[in-house]
Structure formats: C-alpha cells, structure tokens
Design brief:
alpha/beta, Metallo-beta-lactamase, Chain A, binds zinc ion, zinc, RibonucZ/Hydroxyglut_hydro, MBL fold metallo-hydrolase, Metallo-B-lactamas
Amino acid sequence: MKIKVLGFYGGYPANGDGTSSYLIQSNGFNLLLDCGSNALNELEQSIDPLNLDAVILSHYHHDHTADLGVLQYYWQLHPEGRKQPLLPIYGHTEDPLNFGSLTWDNATIGESYSELSPITVGPFKISFLKTHHPVPAFAMRIVDEDGKVLVFTADTSYFDKLISFSDSADLLITDTNFYANKTGLKWHMTSSESGYLADKANVKQLLLSHLPQTGDLNQLVIEAQKSASDKLPIMLAQSNKIINL
Ligand SMILES: [Zn+2]
Ligand SMILES: [Zn+2]
C-alpha cells in the first residue's frame, strides 16, 4: 500500500498547501481518501483523475470535500478516457442532502457505507467507527490484500474506542489539530492525545495530520512523542509525502 498526502491542513488551506486528502494505491487501484481544498491540483501531479477507481469521504465538512464538485466536473467534461464509466464516491447516508450530491449524472455515483458492516473497495477491506464530531464522521480501518493496515481517525476528539479500532496498524493517521495545551471543548485531538492513542494501540508509525496553520508544527511531534514510546516513529504530514507500507 502506498499513501501520498495531497493535503493536510484542518479547516482551510494555507501557505500553498491544501486540506485533508490522501491518495491510497495498491495493486493498481487508486483510492482518493477525502477530497479537500487543493486536492485536485495535487492529484493531477500524480495521476490523471480519470484513473481514479473510487473516492471515499470521512464526512461532509468542507475541508474534506471542497474539491469534490470540481472533480465531478472533471469527470463530466471527459467522457472519453475514463478508467470506468462512473466514478464511485463512498459516503455515509446520515446526511441525505450531501449524500445525494455524490451522484452526478453520467459522471459519478454515490455509494453508501455505515458502521454496521465492512465494505470491499477494489483490493481494500474498509471498516468504520463513528467518531466524536459535531456532524457524523467516520474513522476508517483500511486493509489491503497483503494485510497491511492503515487507520485514519477522520475528524474527532479523543475517545477510548479509537484504541481497539487502531490496534497494531502499520500506519495511523490522526486528526492532530491542536497543540497539547489546548483546553476547553475540543472536536479534534491534541498532539498528546495522538501520541497516547498510537502508543496504546501499538501502531508501527504515526502520521500527524489535519494540522493547525499556526505555531511551530515540530512542537506537535515533540508533544506527541512525550505521550508515546521513544521508539515510535512520528511524522508530520506534508504535501507530496509518500509512505509505503
Ligand atoms: Zn476537518
Ligand atoms: Zn470535520
């Protein structure tokens, strides 16, 4: 499994970098995980978007879906050269208006997922965990045919069920929107909580993502490391960062 970061900020793009989006590739299959602001520009650096096999969305907040409409236009405006007649876009159905917008005539088709049962998308088995967020959002556990495991927390505040859901993942990508000193109501995790989760779940490496636009981001790594084993590799998400599992 190859993971390429296309965008990593929470909320809005900054400094030329976009918001939540990742290209996940395995056995020739191209899965776009979230489609935030600037995702299409970044995706075009890697593959023709007509070569996507599927898109999956963790939730419908704009920083995860901002470029979805233009991706749909891209498919609509290119009837020739598509890898398949319609691009499947997977989303939850708890928000019927947004789920309905995933289907775009002669271009894309909405496909549903839920927490109740895992789905198969090409070479990937994907299971879901509803997170703690102001709108329905789902963490994903993505397993490829070689048994490699990617866990993506989506947007969430910390809760204990994330530990068993992330168990022994080869890579954990966490919503680390806050520095450790954040207090009060939180709908995202802090650096310390990301490190704690990775440590308790015994994951092999941790990628901090959904990052804030302020402060020295290296501080997030230092804070996460304090809550985890010294040996756990902890990385910051960056555009075009590639991780092979
Ligand atoms: Zn977000
Ligand atoms: Zn969100």
